[in-house]
Write a structure and sequence with these properties.
The chain is mostly beta strands and 158 residues long. It has strands at residues 2-4, 16-21, 24-36, 46-53, 67-69, 79-82, 87-89, 92-102, 105-112, 114-118, 122-127, 134-135, 148-150. A 5-stranded antiparallel beta sheet has the order 1-4-3-2-5, with no helix packed on it.
């Protein structure tokens, strides 16, 4: 099975899959990921994943066409943020984290992040931000570490 590059991090050995074939449209076969390649094909942008199908009945023929449903595991440590919160610069992607120092005053900490999935208006961050950290939803150009900000509205308040 060939898996798109953006989904490869969610496919691991032991992941469950289900397989259907046109010859038996109402039957689903249980399968499991046995091996994943460590290289993405530069032409197709996919990674080969080997699955093992429970075919004790012998109904499935080698090389036959099949549909594979491979549910992508979701990392519970991921945090979803608005795409507008991302800061793009020469160092890569970052978020402006708000660190409250006393009641109303706060400072900015620019934190590099790693995106797991781009969902359009939002992105899932897999590394670089904690679940309860406050961010600036639409940071201005030129924002820097240590800039002072005032918290006027936060998701915690609503």
């Amino acid at each position: 099975v060939f898996v798109p590059q953006k989904s490869t991090q969610h496919v691991t050995v032991g992941s469950k899959a289900s397989v259907t074939v046109p010859d038996y449209p109402n039957k689903t076969y249980d399968a499991e990921v046995a091996r994943t390649n460590t290289v993405v094909d530069p032409q197709s942008g996919t990674m080969m994943v080997q699955i093992i199908i429970n075919n004790q009945s012998g109904e499935l023929l080698s090389g036959a066409y099949a549909n594979v449903l491979l549910p992508l595991s979701s990392n519970s440590a991921m945090v979803t943020v608005p795409s507008s919160a991302l800061i793009f610069n020469a160092d890569g992607l970052s978020l402006a984290i708000v660190e409250v120092t006393d009641g109303e005053t706060a400072s900015v900490q620019i934190q590099p992040v790693e995106i797991a999935r781009d969902l359009g208006r939002t992105v899932e961050i897999i590394q670089g931000i904690g679940e309860h950290q406050m961010i600036i939803a639409n940071p201005p150009d030129g924002i820097q570490n240590g800039d002072r900000v005032r918290v006027v509205n936060s998701a915690k308040d609503s």
